[in-house]
Every structure is written in C-alpha cells, then in structure tokens.
Design goal:
heterodimer; A: about 130 residues; alpha/beta; 5-stranded parallel beta sheet; globular; B: about 110 residues; mainly alpha; Arc Repressor Mutant, subunit A
Chain lengths: ~130, ~110
C-alpha cells in the first residue's frame, strides 16, 4: 500500500484547454473555471487557459469588488504559477476591442491572434468552455 | 458548531472550519488543536503562519502539493516534503493546518 505522500505517476498526459469568455463577476463562470483548473492541476496534465471576449476582464489589474459585495478573487490568478499552470493565452482582438493591452493584465500572459488561437485549439485533446 | 475560546464564541462550519477569517487569533488555533489532541509547537506555527500569509496574498488555501513546494522554497527541503508535513499534521497537512489557521478548507484538497 502506498503512503499518502508517495506520488503516483501522472499516467497519460492530455492537453486540456480551459476557455474563459465571460466577465469575472455577474455570473459564476469565471470563478468556477478557476476552481476547476486549480483542482485539476493535481492530475498533472498539460493545462492551458485562454481568455477571450469579456473573459479578458478576468485578468484585468486593479479589480475592486467592494461595491458589488463579492469577493475579489483576481489575486488567485497569481497563484496559478505555483500550481504549474503557466500557459495563459489572451486573444489580441478581444483586448484591442476593449481598449486593453498586455500591460493591463495582472499576470504574465501570451497575447495571441484569433487565428493562432484557433490553431492551438485544434491541437487540444480536451476543451472546456466557461 | 461554534467553538468557545476565552469566553467568546466563534462560528464554524460543520467540519470545524472558522466561518469568518477575521475572527482568527492564535488562542483559537491552540484551542482547535487541543480539541484534536494536538499541542502546537514552533514547527506547527511556522506552517500556520505561512498559510495565513499565502491566503492573504492569493485569497485561497493552497492544495497540499502546492503548500509542500512553497514551504520547501521558503523553509528549506527538510521541511518542504510531505513526510515532515504529515508528521506535523497527521490529518492531512493542508486540511488540518488550514483549519488551525482559520482558513476555509482548501479547494480539492487532502
């Protein structure tokens, strides 16, 4: 019997992509996606997160939720690195349409064109959309 | 089930985790540990304080794997391993230490 501190191997590694399309507050999608990513990180898969449309606001610096009475969970995106989730892609068109740039993002991201993202999506084994 | 410390009552959830993070104080941690039959020494406090700082920064309680790695980075490899942490917190380092630190139960944790 194995002890709890003994790691089992990761088995077959699949490419998981989590696609985030919605603004961080107002619906539960952004927070749920983040929690799923944090839990699934334990399975040591090849994980990436994509931020498209209003989803880019999830990574916007300087979020202040006091007036809407919700917890500001944006600092948690900075914990992703510690969970070995380091591939964060933001769609260039979505940023531009909202007057945002890479500088507005609260974590290091890779800004990618819509076409390149489409190609990246083609390579995935599993895509989960939130 | 509320927990009584120094004549004050603190709200907890059904698993004994503190309902309000801001209620926390060191006496509360000591009392929670005593209820589990544990006496906290400086090694326990090192982990508890680490967890509180982690939560302050990231707004989550870390998974045990992440906690182990982060402890190793900060306190050295002889403390950043599962065996050491399980000896300190036999009910599961993240779960038990988070409880004493007044944090919510870690997301998807042991």
């Amino acid at each position: 019997m194995s002890e709890p501190w003994e790691d089992e191997g990761p088995g077959e590694v699949k490419k998981f992509m989590y696609v985030n399309r919605k603004a961080p507050y107002g619906t539960i999608y952004a927070l749920e996606s983040l929690e799923v990513v944090l839990i699934a990180a334990a399975f040591e898969q090849d994980v990436s997160m994509v931020f498209i449309d209003d989803g880019v606001y999830q990574l916007k610096k300087g979020q202040d939720t006091q007036q809407i009475g919700m917890k500001n969970f944006s600092p948690t995106y900075r914990a992703l690195e510690g969970y070995d989730v380091e591939k964060l892609y933001v769609e260039a068109e979505s940023l531009a349409e909202r007057g945002l740039t890479e500088e507005d993002m609260l974590v290091p991201v890779e800004v990618m064109s819509r076409d390149d993202l489409a190609r990246l999506m083609d390579e995935q084994d599993v895509i989960l959309s939130f | 089930m509320p927990i009584e410390v120094n004549g004050k009552s603190y709200e907890t959830d059904e698993e004994g985790y503190l309902a309000n993070l801001n209620d926390w104080n060191p006496d509360l941690a000591t009392a929670m540990a005593a209820a589990d039959g544990t006496t906290l020494d400086e090694n326990h406090w090192e982990v508890i304080n680490f967890l509180r700082e982690y939560y302050e920064e990231y707004q989550i309680a870390p998974a045990v794997r992440v906690l182990t790695k982060a402890i190793g980075k900060k306190l050295g490899p002889d403390k950043g391993n599962s065996k050491y942490l399980y000896e300190l917190f036999p009910y599961g380092p993240a779960k038990q230490a988070c409880k004493y630190a007044g944090l919510p139960k870690p997301t998807g944790c042991v």
